[in-house]
Amino acid sequence: MANKYTSLDQVRERIDELDEQIQRLINARAECAQAVAQIKTQSGHTEADFYRPEREAQILRQVIERNPGPVSGEEMARLFREIMSACLALEQAMRIAFLGPEGTYTHDAALKHFGHSVTAVPHGAIDEIFRDVEAGFSHYGVVPIENSTEGVVDHTLDMFLNSPLQISGEVELRIHHCLLAKGDSLDGIKAVYAHQQALAQCREWLDENLKDVPRIAVNSNAAAAKMAAADEAVVAIASMAAAELYALNSIACNIEDEPDNTTRFLVIGRQSPAPSGKDKTSLLVSTPNRPGGLNNLLKPLADAGISMTRIESRPSRRAMWEYVFFIDIEGHKDDVNVAAALDVLADRSSVLKVLGSYPAAVV
After folding, report:
1. What SS3 class is residue 168?
2. pLDDT of residue 193 exceeding 50
3. Between 341 and which of 192, 288, 300, 314 could a Cys-Cys bridge form, CB atoms 3.0 to 4.6 Å apart?
4. 253-306 pLDDT, tens per residue?
């Protein structure tokens, strides 16, 4: 593309013009959000009607599809996420519970999904997040569900056994671990603190660089960062966000063993979204312990042409050697083929609980 500008002053003048247009358009969009809130309030809509996960997912997909560059589609979607977050805050102040303290990857996931115009509420344990959302103190919660290298988060799965909450979204977050310290070298380091999964994900780097230093598991990487900020003899494995929050130096970054290390998080709430056009459905299913029981459960999905993306088993806690299966499938529970398959599955299973249908992660 030929450069149509002949001087730096011309370019800067054009940037100022564009910034003014962008600002004006963002405020125009915000006025539309206020109008939406007014219409919904006058129509008697409840709190749940203000945030529409399926609508936001559709908008973000359109942003990516129509984006011509040079800004990447993913980066453009992040910018629009923040615009939507600011506009939604004019309709309704959102409280989002997450696994704290501030600076955890769950905190990062909550902000990635909802934007920075929400009130993020930290909790010390996954069950506290569930209770907070169930009680209505927070509108939604964000909890980790699985990591690409270390597998499923059992505590999250177990909470779904008895919780009435629905899954309303998912977040996929690339995990880049950094070694953080108050000082600027590894001299005199006496301990490495991190969540147990982070320690496992960085095993090779630690074996090579801090082989004889004790590794101590704590509740979260952010808690580890807080400890490192208080003790020069301690280093923590955490994110760059935690480094900034606790004023730590990054001794080394991207120390995870797998470069594609990704954690998936679930957004939990009291309602299940409408179809967005590209959805997932999560199920909890149980069957009597007999030969072919699991195959009998999965066959209706295969017969309906439904793709299964994940399956995990957990003890049912009702009887010895009895298990429940957590299954993720592509499609929404209201899709014709999915609804038909679930009808068959309900007849064949001793327990069938739809944990939620929700938009697949966009970015």
Report:
1. strand
2. yes
3. 300
4. 999 998 888 999 999 999 889 999 999 999 999 887 677 778 888 899 999 999
Does the active-site annotation cover 156? no
Whole-structure pTM value: 0.88
Among the four given CATH numbers 2.60.120.10, 3.40.50.150, 2.30.110.10, 3.40.190.10, the one describing domain 178-253: 3.40.190.10
First vs last C-alpha separation in the chain: 28
Average pLDDT over residues 180-208: 92
Let me know if 281 is a catalytic residue.
no
Report the top-level CATH class of 93-175+262-268. alpha beta
- With DSSP H G I counted as helix, E B as strand and the rest as coil, what are the percentages for the chain, rounded to 5? 40, 25, 35
Choice among 265, 281, 325, 326 that is catalytic: 265
Q: Quote the pLDDT of residue 320.
A: 47
CA atoms within a 13 Å half-sphere pointing along the CA-CB vector of 234: 19
CATH code of 274-359, in short, is: 3.30.70.260
Burial class (CB in 10 A: 0-12, 13-18, 19+), 223: buried
